[in-house]
Fold each of these.
Amino acid sequence: MKQLEIEFKTLLTEREYHSLCHFYHLTKQDFHAQTNVYFDTPQGDLRQKHCGLRIRQYADKGEITLKTPQKVGLLETTDSFTLTEIQQLIKEKKIPTTGVVAKELKQLTIAIDQLTVIASLTTKRAEFTIPEGLLALDESWYNNQHDYELELEVSDAEIGKQAFDTYLEAHNLSYRPAENKIMRAIKTI
């Protein structure tokens, strides 16, 4: 599966995060856990191409996603797996050599057999649609770090940027640049 991801994000303070959870009346049942295991070659071939590769495990399934930069946003190429399959891939620290992700990796001249785990991160996420787009509130843990983040996924970059800025202002939130989770995790190794 392939889809274009256009998102705007900001880091939140713990207080801002809990305030938004309260504003949206979120309960424990609104959140789900996901663990991301990130891969690259020892030489950082994916990073040099501004790409990201992860295995994501949910409670009942998993997926492998390759993110590649586009003129606007990131192209997400994803293969889906059962929970048992994804757990085995994580245990073996391997990316399959078949599927749409493998095909894209080959087109990028990335040697799949050279890929290795470079970081992991666990997130507790609430995700729901608001008028501006798809909103995600994340609390993440990685390498003795703990942070909070708001992501707004939109279908149009220009309209989405305006909506994101308006949303921050309406909720009295300061913009704090948030690197992608993979970069935050890698920088703390």
Amino acid sequence: MKVFTVSANAQANRDLLPSVDDTIGAQAELLSSQLRAMSEALFPPTSQKVLRRFTSGEAAKLMGVSDSTLRKMTLAGDGPQPQTTSNGRRLYTLSDINGIRKLLAQSARGREAIEFVPHRRSHEHLQVLAVTNFKGGSGKTTTSAHLAQYLALQGYRVLAIDLDPQASLSALLGVLPEVDVGSNETLYAAIRYDAQRRPLSDVVRHTYFDGLDLVPGNLELMEFEHTTPKALTADGRENQTIFFARVAEALDEVADNYDVVVIDCPPQLGFLTLSGLCASTSMVVTVHPQMLDISSMSQFLLMTRDLLGVVRDAGGDLKFDFVRYLLTRYEPQDAPQTKVAALLRNLFDDHVMTNPMVKSAAVSDAGLTKQTLYEIGRENITRSTYDRAMEALDAVNAEIEDLIRKAWARA
């Protein structure tokens, strides 16, 4: 039997090496500072993200009216007036568009006012949609951001909640988690167990998208994973709302202000994800159509079933309006992906969304500057690439909007 020993010199050299936590810490600081510098180069600290203006053709399409109708309103001085460029093009902000929507709703002839201003009515429940998966890289955050922005563009009042400690959704919506989000300024502030708990309205932020608000995230959200086990075993816990009902309880405080809530869940099944799911009325599971991802999703679904079963036995209400699987980063020309997609459709039938989100360089290019396709405009990317990506994106989001409208029993 050989005995391996470390020489005195080797041990001395080893003692001089930095500890692994110091190494990782130094690398984390280096990467963080570089990312901050890149972000500041794109968006200086003194500036804020601003949504581009929309052409009269884009505005008319969003409102469901003709361009000539908008032109007549401009000439008559009705409603918010667009910016007119030197070549006569009319450009509208999203705030302008929403103002015109309200005007059209007041004078609707032969059409329901709700077609122009689609806010939910008193008998229609708040739609809380969780976007989730167990595996990172499935397009969860990209889906959440584009869906929230799409619904805001259609005139809905939307609240986006970043439940992921990595806070990628917050960054996409113009809030840098390391710089702009302080202590007790995430959803954790509204679901924590101690005296520092705050109303959710205190941490809701308006964004540069008119009609879209955000509850940002950062690493502070991980505190909920640490404090919940203690709260479950602590004396006097009968006076506390149980963990899986805390997100729903927080949302009740602001429900009257919104039509739809989009929750970007973290890519693991912890207390945060369970709380988000229990607050939801519907769920979209993003899945990349490859066998490794499908295997991971299978484990996710089995674990979700077991954990939600425990929650249900404890009194949780788990009635969802719909559950759908969304194929993301889909490449129709990739034979293995088409086989996996066909397998899912055979197994889950209508639970798989009809429209997949195709893989597109346009989405990746927009993400380089922390933007979405709805922000960058057609002139900033090869038009054919942009148009293909937008066609797929609008089809996916319109399908989800249709599911929401059906849940409200709208025609």
Amino acid sequence: MTNTAIRYTPEFKQTLIDLHEKGHSFKELHEEYGPSLDTIRKWVQAATVIAIDHQGTAVTNEQFKQLQKENRRLREELDILKRAAVLLGRWSASSRQVK
């Protein structure tokens, strides 16, 4: 079974997002350009600015989700390193007592 999914360029997606922000409906964009209503809606939602960071830069929904994912991964790595430090400390202390 072949993958027949259409891949859209980031430029094309951004064009449709910009058109939606200028007042075009999802239905108009679908009828004129082809992607499904849900696809266009997801693109617009991902590009929606949800906050402004301390440097004045807009943070989109998609960027926020990526930051959350990275934060979760880094917390897991930190937890692993903490456990390893405890184990190494115990091993080091027990090896000193044997001498």
Amino acid sequence: MADPKDPRHYEESFKRQIVRLYENGEPAREIKDEYDISHSTLHRWVQGIRNSGSTKAADNRTPEQNELIELRKRNRQLEMEVDVSEQAALIFARK
């Protein structure tokens, strides 16, 4: 099984080939064993192809999930700006 700290990256064509095998009746267990893919990965690819025609996570998110991701990014950016401002204030206070 793959190391979670070093995730694998698969080509889109490979993902589509695996989904085709599954949809043509190949048992999930055989696909997982032969290609060393986890059950959740196989399920995510199949659901992605069925829902949006894509295996990319960004194409399969709800608007709420996209909004949450954007809000988290914005929050991190604002936290960094606050940290920089605090450091600058300390430097100017010393002078």
